[in-house]
Design goal:
69% helix; 90 residues; single chain
């Protein structure tokens, strides 16, 4: 992306929520995203199917849920196993 686009994105991220909401509504009313091509549609459909399957497993109680802390510990261990240190995002 160009420097101008990166600057605009940076400024948008600093907007208060109400101003961001107004901006997004304005953009949405003025621009229509191009239609997805066949490959993109099939990827979206596959992800929708996967999301629905996983959500159903949670609702059915057929999967064991873990806490965020346990997930972090497992990821840290996996990174360490490969001699890496995981960067944390605030």
């Amino acid at each position: 992306m160009t420097a101008a686009v990166e600057r605009i994105k940076s400024e948008i991220r600093r907007l208060p929520k109400d101003e961001l909401d107004d901006l997004l509504r304005d953009i949405q009313s003025e621009y229509v995203l191009p239609a997805l091509n066949e490959d993109e549609r099939s990827v979206e459909a596959a992800w929708d199917e996967e999301i629905n399957r996983r959500a159903q497993e949670v609702m059915d109680g057929t999967v064991e849920l873990i806490s965020g802390e346990e997930s972090d510990r497992m990821m840290d261990a996996l990174y360490a196993k490969h001699g890496l240190q995981r960067k944390r995002v605030a």
